[in-house]
Amino acid sequence: MPLSNAQMRDVQSVLHPYTNLVKFRETGPMIIERGQGVRVYDEHGKDYIEAMAGLWCTALGWGDNELAETAAEQMRKLAFGHLFGGKSHEPAIALAEKLKEVAPFPVGKVFFANSGSEANDTQVKLYWYAANARGETRKKKILSRTKAYHGVTLASASLTGLVNNHRSFDLPFDFARFAECPHYYHAAEPGETELQFSARMGANLDALIEKEGPDTIAAMIAEPVMGAGGVIVPPDGYFDQVVRVLAKHGIPMIADEVITGFGRTGNWFGATTYGFEPESMSIAKALSSAYLPISAVLLSPELSEIVEQESGKIGTFGHGFTYSGHPVSAAVALKTIEIYQRRDLVGHVRHVAPAFQKRLRALSDHPLVGEAVGVGLIGAIELVADKATKKNFEPAKQVGATFGNFAQDEGLIVRPLLGDRIALCPPLVISEAEIAELFDRLERALAKALDWAIREKLIAV
Ligand SMILES: Cc1ncc(COP(=O)(O)O)c(C=O)c1O
Known about the structure:
By secondary structure, the chain is of the alpha/beta class. The protein has helices at 5-13, 24-27, 53-56, 65-77, 90-102, 116-133, 154-159, 184-187, 194-212, 238-249, 270-273, 301-314, 327-342, 345-362, 399-409, 432-455; strands at 32-36, 39-42, 47-50, 109-113, 141-145, 176-179, 217-222, 253-256, 280-283, 295-299, 369-375, 378-383, 412-413, 415-417, 421-424. It has 16 helices and 15 strands.
């Protein structure tokens, strides 16, 4: 199909994130015009089930009038207000209070930012600030993990463990250190149980900390479920091991709950699902159901206190964004959480997740699918060239991206990730009937992808 007028205008003017910008000149973008519930509609009126909730974020789906009204009302009342130099406003105060109430660990203070990346950059700066306040000036390294995704600003991209976030950007900066990605499917040794694998991950983390020197490590950051790195669900006992090793060395944990926060895994937070208590937490995305940009860092009382003390010594806490706690974003986030509570969205996730997980896991019988895993309403399938050996396709064959196109033909938006992993992370409001339709469309796309892979001689039959 020739490019539409809107597609051509886009190609002329928009620099797209996460896109092969050369190829894109020929293909142009898919232009989404509107959305309602779990569906979005393109410029030709075709409907798609948005099985990624946009970018793992639109938890309440599209077209929620209550959020639209809240934003309009707040815009009329106080369109902008900031938190610098002692100013404040009710939406930021009420949201901070609400976050302290729902957080899964004791929270002293809440710092607001606009994106997950900014929240994670803030985390790094807070731990450095606190280390300097305590006179522990060597304690500056932050542990992350291979395949972690923590964002794209300079510090958060340094903590992201994906090569394309580093290549040609002169990253990562030297403070980042990487433990292994706990991907049992690929990294387990023959015959190793999940618990044994997790124990080995724990021992290797311990060895890494010993090698670096525990007194040089300020914190470890982790997503409860690794998202953009491939939806890697932690194996049994994994976080027990991480907690044990970090406690041994007195290293605090930063939970990056940018994807897992607000019900995604069947609890309000992933830290609860996996049984650990962080020292601080980053949240974004579902915080406002992505209706407006807002993120936050929740700090333990002790971390809050030391940051406050240091600012007193210096004369100011020299960090903050113009839009930190923007009143319209804050009002919408507060309303979003109210809706989660009123509609018992976490209860809804628990109710529909078994149907989602059952259809997802059944896909592992398909000839193209190596792994099919998930928790709550997040999951992934991995398309492999050989199920017996778990051999991946050559990246140049673009199998995941091709599958993504077949899915789009079938009216389904998924997200192909590195290693031909296909992520699913639908709006949390999805019904059982919509889950069934999602997987019916996905199965039709898989059938097309299989025919294509056979024709292209990518798999033997
Ligand atoms: C776990 C995690 N942390 C941080 C980020 C970065 O968030 P943002 O894109 O809002 O900067 C993301 C984005 O997908 C994420 O998944």
